Amino acid sequence: MFKWKDNFSVNIESIDEQHKELFKIGNSLYEIVSIKDGVDRYDEIVEVLHSLMDYAVYHFSFEEKVMVDNGYPKFEQHKRQHDSFITKVRSIDEEEIDEMQKKIGMDLIIFIANWIENHILKTDMEYKEFLNDKGVY
Ligand SMILES: [Fe+2]
Ligand SMILES: [Fe+2]
After folding, report:
1. Of the ligands numbered here, which is closest to the C-alpha atom of 82?
2. Ligand 2 mean position, distance from CA 124 (Å)
3. Which numbered ligand comes closest to the C-alpha of 59?
4. Using CA atoms, how far apart are residues 111 and 89, in angstroms rounded to an integer?
5. What are the Hemerythrin-like domain coordinates in residue numbering (predicted)?
6. CA distance 50 to 94
7. Closest to 120 measured CA to CA, from 67, 90, 81
8. Is residue 81 part of a domain?
9. Domains in the chain: how many in total?
10. CB-based contacts of 103: which residues, under 8 Å, 6+ apart?
11. How deeply is 78 buried, as exposed, middle or buried, from its count of CB atoms within 10 A (0-12, 13-18, 19+)?
């Protein structure tokens, strides 16, 4: 589902690794939601949701520190996108997942896909040259 390509690289090794990890979490969610055996997957979906949350918090604070340490001029607007991602993931109601597992799982997959497209491939990409020029690889 979520496949890493070389042009997704921001040319900073640690951040690329973290982005790949987020792809992995997206893929495990996709796998769970795609199984059509009618078995209740509530616990698994909630577990993936929590790992997405935890990993996003970790990755965002890492990225934000690199930006602040290097005086990245577009830090504020970048951070706002991170914050809205967290708010959105946090707003997913676990009781609702219980009733509408497939629907919420699929919505979340679409949300992650949009995030990759609009944040990693656009907003994150904007710091690539700036940070590389500062010697961050
Ligand atoms: Fe990122
Ligand atoms: Fe970012």
Report:
1. 2
2. 5
3. 1
4. 9
5. 12-130
6. 11
7. 81
8. yes
9. 1
10. none
11. buried
Cβ-proximal residues to 66 (8 Å cutoff; 6+ apart), any chain? 12, 15, 72, 131, 136
Residue 60 in any domain: the answer is yes
pLDDT, one tens digit per residue, over 49-86 is: 999 999 999 999 999 999 999 999 999 999 999 999 99
CA of 34 to the centre of ligand 2 (A): 28
Cβ distance 27 to 2 under 8 Å? yes
Which band of pLDDT confidence, cut at 50, 70 and 90, is reported for residue 38? Answer: confident
- Classify residue 111: in a domain, yes or no: yes
- Smallest CA-to-CA distance from 58 within 24, 82, 28, 80 is with 82
Length of the chain equals 137
For residue 124, what is the domain's CATH number? 1.20.120.50
Average pLDDT over residues 110-129: 96
12: left (phi over 0), alpha (psi -120 to 50) or beta: beta
Angstrom distance (rounded) from CA 66 to CA 113: 24
